[in-house]
Amino acid sequence: MSIVRNFIQDWSRYRKGIEDGGFHEYEHMWGMVIDLDKCTGCNACSVACYAENNLAVVGEDYFAHGQAMHWMRIERYWDEPNLGDKASKDTQEHGASFMPMMCQQCNAATCEPVCPVAAAYHTPDGLNAQIYNRCIGSRYCANNCPYRLRYFNFYSYYETSWPSPLDMQLNPDITVRDKGVMEKCTFCVQRIRTAKSDAKMDDRKIQDGDIKTACQQTCPTSAIVFGDLMDHESDVHLLWHKHQTKLGTPKQDKKNPELRGYRLYEQLNTEPSVTYLERVREV
Amino acid sequence: MAEHTAATKDIDEKIAWAKINADVLRSMQNPRKGYWVALAFCVGLLSIGIYAEVHQYDIGMGPSNLNNPHMWDLYISTFVFWIGMSHSGTLLSAILHIFHADWRKPIYRFAEAMTTFSLLTALLFPIIHLGRVWNMHWVVPYLSDRGIWPNFRSPLVWDAFAITTYLTASVLFLYIGMIPDLAICRDNVKGWRRKLYTFMSVGWRGDDRQWRNFRKTYLLMACFLIPLAVSVHSIVAADFAMAIMPGWHVTSFPPYFVAGALYSGCAGIISLFVLLRYFFKFEQYMTLPILDKTCRLTFAIAMVWTYLNLIEFASVWYGHDVTSKEVLLAKFFGPYSPFFLTMLFFGMILPFALIVPKIRHNMPLIFIVSILLNIGMWLERYMIVAPTLSLAYHPWTWGVMWPSWVEWGIVIGSIGWFGLLFLIFVKVFPSVSMYEVKEMVYHRRRVVFDDAEERVMKPSRQEGS
Question: Which domains, and CATH codes, for chain A?
Fold first, then answer.
């Protein structure tokens, strides 16, 4: 009987681990909030990401082929196309909506279980990491990412991306990837690691604001907030709390229209770590 | 009863055993001009594929036109297609062996060779499609001092296990079933062939003990191979069914894939049947009644496949998954609709041609029909892979992509590779099972009992009874 009881207990623990995503066990839990109301679509975050993470500049032709490496991309959506004739001129003048998209660092990531060599794995920080050295380029992870946020090195981009002396500006904290490797946004993991070791040297805990991702640092309207969700006084946690976005729930319970937070494709149970705050419109 | 037997007899019962030997051995010798032309054609196709692969290896996956949403394309769909082709031999030799369907006997050998060679072809594709081919061995667990294992949760790792196991088993099965025939070859040839067959026939003398062990081994291998064949394609289906993507995440995919595999395998058997019958003058062995039965089997499997296809549509249509529904609608009305509708026509409507006896008995026509069925089945795999990637969840990445010459080149090269292996096989190994055709002739004429063969083979050594 004890065997059966143990089995049932193990099973319920296992189920709970799946449902809760296991994030509560973590020391840190890096998360982000992007306020779409503040985003102006200026693309500065994207440029900053290229500079920080040694992203290859692929050129016009490859970009048109969809072989670009923009870890951080600004997507434009033109609104209310279904209004038809009813769309007033004002509506048109709202212009595009912008959606800054980077890896959502899912807690129940779909890319991780499908990698045949476990190159996509979950760090104890709640990050969704990619080991370039281990990647064999089966591209299954990218196929299974509902957000399509994984980028593949279709060529040896480094040969042409940074003609001398541009190669001098490469970030030494990050590798330059060769052909056949999958890559994606890391939440600037090199900055996280540096901040962690600095904090350890000073014998203190990481404080909110120690780490700024490149996109957050560059955003002129401070639309991007990054921090530790386990730290209950961090800005990012306060924003998540304020907008009642919760991990472990497939659908956010929105009673108040002022609660603008949502995560992308929550119905898929991927548990993204990025909350978007809806843009407010007066139509 | 006698009339019934006479009406449905599969091959002429009056063929002498010596004639069977002579006919099959003749087919293995003196390749004619047409053979060399076919061989050169296959080598030509293969060299296109090799050139494309070398190009891709050299500069990366880029020239294949794959892009951000379309990370898999022709490579994976052709991989699934070849895995499907490999189910023909197992169906004919293992499943029908267990069901005592005697009509399979003259045609199962080449079907089994088809199994092995299409597996060898299929095996190339997951390797070719890797971004870093030189690290492909990381997918299998091996003792490494780094202590790193593959990710056992990934369907690609299951693929590696399933395909290598199936390949090993089907090569063994092909070889074991061939041993008595190799002994016949050994006794009738000279030169390098004699050395080869002497080595491969492992001292077969055809005595009682050898036959008994042979029968047991063969039956055991057949029983072992059937679950493997089902599992290997279910696991290939899991590549898609385990994913979260709309159009891939379908519960009925494993049986659907297995049915599709048997379907395309049977169509492949019909094509090769017609070719071998014509070129090797095997009219007495590959007879019309056997073709009839193969066609009926193909039709039955085609209907199973059609049914599974329709329930997949129905379950998507009546389900609550909006994205899956949109992908399905896009298949019907979107940019892929020409391919999709062609696939539906070739896969669902065309098999009804197989129930018309006039078409079944018209060799050129049935050959064309079987090729079209396989084109339909190839399109089916393409329609599983491509539209989902084009139209998944995220609207920003929606788009259509057309494969480049590199991808087409490798697909064409794979056909050349398969053809080359098969052409070499038919000249080196007997493509009709001599000993089993003899059994057919014998069993029709006499009562069947266990030691029958033994007494016929060695009349001087009668024991018991």
Answer: 19-277 (3.30.70.20)
Q: Report the chain A residue with the minimal C-alpha distance to residue B322.
A: A267
Q: What is d(CA B214, CA B225) in angstroms, rounded to the nearest whole number?
A: 16
Q: CA angle, B403 as apex, B163 and A75 as ends, to 5°?
A: 105
Q: How far is CA A150 from CA A107, A191, B2, B67, in A?
A: 16, 20, 69, 11
The reply to whether omega before B364 is within 30° of 0 (cis) is: no
- Best mutation target, B64, B75, B151, B322, to test chain A (most A CBs within 10 A): B151
What count of other Cβ atoms lies within 10 Å of the Cβ of residue B269? 26
pTM of the model: 0.89
From chain B, the residues in CB contact with A177 under 8 A are none
Q: Counting one residue from A and one from B, how many pairs have CB atoms under 8 Å apart?
A: 143
Q: DSSP of B453-465, one letter per residue?
A: HHHHH-TT-----
**Domain map of chain B by residue range?**
19-457
Distance, CA of B292 to CA of B356 (rounded, Å): 10
ipTM of the complex: 0.85
C-alpha span between B43 and B60 (Å, rounded):
25
Give the one of B71, B150, B395 whose C-beta lies nearest to A118's C-beta: B150
What is the rounded end-to-end Cα distance, in angstroms, of chain B? 29
Q: Compute the half-sphere exposure of residue B390: CA atoms within 13 Å on the CB side of its CA.
A: 21
Is the predicted pLDDT of residue A97 greater than 70, yes or no?
A: yes
CATH code at B19-457: 1.20.1630.10
Amino acid letter, A58: V
- For the stretch A203-262, pLDDT in tens is 998 888 899 999 999 999 999 999 998 888 899 999 998 888 877 776 766 777 788 888
Task: Classify A75 as helix, strand or coil.
Answer: strand
